């Protein structure tokens, strides 16, 4: 019997960076360009990134909002 390997992109562990842009939107970007999006809230952005990272918080990195605070 033979084994079919998934495409390389599917085997890569996704790493996410979340930041707030100049318009107050939360941007999620995956390091390899495999996923991402714009969100109205930090909570929605983090929820999306965690679900895409198989709930591994170590692969989700949130940058501080402009001015040093964390926007909601």
Structure description:
- With 72 residues, the chain is of the alpha+beta class.
- The protein has a domain at 13-62.
- It contains two helices and four strands; from the N terminus they run H-E-E-E-H-E.
- It has helices at residues 8-11, 42-52; strands at residues 16-20, 26-30, 36-39, 60-62.
- A four-stranded mixed β-sheet has the order 3-2-1-4, with helices on one face.
- Strand 1 and strand 2 (26-30) form a beta hairpin.
- The chain starts with 7 loop residues before the first helix and ends in a 10-residue tail after the last strand.
Descriptors:
4 strands, elongated, four-stranded mixed sheet, alpha+beta, 24% strand
Distance between the termini: 52 Å
Low-confidence stretches: none
- Work out the radius of gyration: 14 Å
Query: Which percent band covers the strand fraction?
Result: 15-25%
Summarize the amount of helix as a percent range.
10-25%
Strand order of the largest sheet: 3-2-1-4
Element layout with pairings:
Layout: H1 8-11, E1 16-20, E2 26-30, E3 36-39, H2 42-52, E4 60-62
Parallel strand pairs: 1-4
Antiparallel strand pairs: 1-2, 2-3
Compact overview of the structure:
The protein is of the alpha+beta class. It has helices spanning 8-11, 42-52; strands at 16-20, 26-30, 36-39, 60-62.
């Amino acid at each position: 019997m033979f084994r079919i390997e998934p495409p390389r992109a599917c085997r890569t562990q996704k790493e996410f960076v979340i930041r707030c842009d100049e318009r107050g939107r939360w941007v999620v970007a995956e390091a390899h360009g495999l996923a991402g999006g714009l969100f109205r809230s930090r909570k929605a952005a983090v929820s999306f990134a965690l679900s895409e990272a198989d709930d591994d918080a170590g692969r989700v990195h949130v940058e501080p909002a402009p001015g040093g605070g964390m926007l909601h």
